[in-house]
Amino acid sequence: MTAIPAAERSLRRSGAWIAVSLALVAGVYVRALVFTPEEATQGLAQKIFYIHAPSAWVAFLGCGIVGVCSLLYLFLKDPRLDLLAASSAEVGTVFLTTVLVTGPIWGKTIWGAWWTWDARLTLTLFLWFICLGYLVLRTAVDEPGRRARYSAVLGILGALLVPFIHVSVLLFRTLHPKPVVLQTSRPQLPGSMLTTLLVSFAVFTIFFFALLARRYAWARLREARAQGEAEAADASR
Amino acid sequence: MADLLAQAWAIAAKDLLLEFRSRTAFLSALVFTALVLAIFNFARDPTAVATIDLAPSILWITFSFAGVLALNRAFSLEKENRAIDGLLLSPASRTALYLGKTAANLVFVGAVEAIALPLFALFFNVPLLGVLAPLVLVIALATIGFVTVGTLMSSMAVNTRFGEMMLLVLVLPFLVTPVSAAASMSAKIFAGRPFAEWAPWLKLLTAYDITFFVICTLVFEATVEE
Amino acid sequence: MPPVNGGYMVAAYVAAAVIYLAYSAWLLWRSRDR
Q1: Mean pLDDT value of segment A155-184
Q2: Residue A237 domain-assigned?
Q3: Looking at residue B45, what is its pLDDT?
Q4: What confidence score (pLDDT) does residue A174 get?
Q5: B195 touches chain A (CB under 8 A)
Q6: Chain C residue with the nearest C-alpha to that of A54
Q7: CA–CA distances in Å: residue A82 to residues A69, A130, A223, A229
């Protein structure tokens, strides 16, 4: 019964964190757009990196958390691991979506095409598919224990699939050279740009964990309340 | 070990016997595959692209459809009779259950492919005889990769809402590696390229099969635990 | 002289902001304490 007040407290705390991190993201926007110099070869489009790359980092982090929690769940059977994996998948999907939206906008300016079947792009797309499949699967199973087991299985298989897709795309690309120039080896960023990028990485990481904490606290609260209701029903019988 | 294989064999034999008696699923899968091949003929511009360039795509899209159909069969079989409940009560181990189901699905898909392949050669005028051995190897490896994951997913999809749709959403991302590997290798084989050119794909596909076979066997228990 | 592609930059920043604000708002609304 003590679980409910604790979950309520962490729900309130995470709300404050989301507010703080949104303000920090706004700060990154101002710093990137106003106080960071324009890059010489790519122009203003290069600034897309300041939100694109950090989003990609936390999206992959989120997917990694899903994989690790799924694996641990099958051994430990702790429902908290399942809830954390589910929360991480949802938040990770949001960041993946941003990556998939901002990436092509940058690609259009530099590669000349909205979409190319570049290794990282393709991998991100399929991660997105797997994450969506994971979230859809969770809505399609009612019984919590079974939902947790099924999601864990998909989480593990999905994590295993990632390296295979990566190698597939690399092989595909070396065997079918593309006319578009894909080698975009990023030059060493000058100081102030690097600072902006690093600050952005830090801020997005905080933002991710704030959203994750909120989503997780909410899931915990719902579970604790459902359990409390079930116990009350048992007691009154 | 021998015990495990005997149990798996019993389960596979039961599944296949059931299929052999009615033949509905097999025949419909076969007709479906033939239809897809025939429709493909009209979905291309014969003056623009040489058939041989398109052949690997046609082959692997058709086989992917056939594979998905086979998984749907395994799925609806379980759904209709709740056969899995009976199997879970039997002394057969969970691992034997998975191996048996996978073997039955493999035989089913293999049989459809065995008939569809000559049909494909006939319709699209692809000379198969000279390249049969490497092509069969590629088809076998890709089918194993697809069926190992698909059997596991269909055992989960049975217990979900909109199960058939769920099965597709779950299984299609896992098709990327087998299909891209198989299609690339088939293209090289049809073009008569040396083995060294498609060896990396062969390695990748073999690694995929081994990895997913081992992992699916290990985690299958989690999908049927009550 | 760098290329002029500020429009793309603005589009990307706006798109990201919309996604993040929408999700944050949706999450906070769903999980509000009743």
Answers
A1: 73
A2: no
A3: 75
A4: 61
A5: no
A6: C16
A7: 7, 17, 12, 21
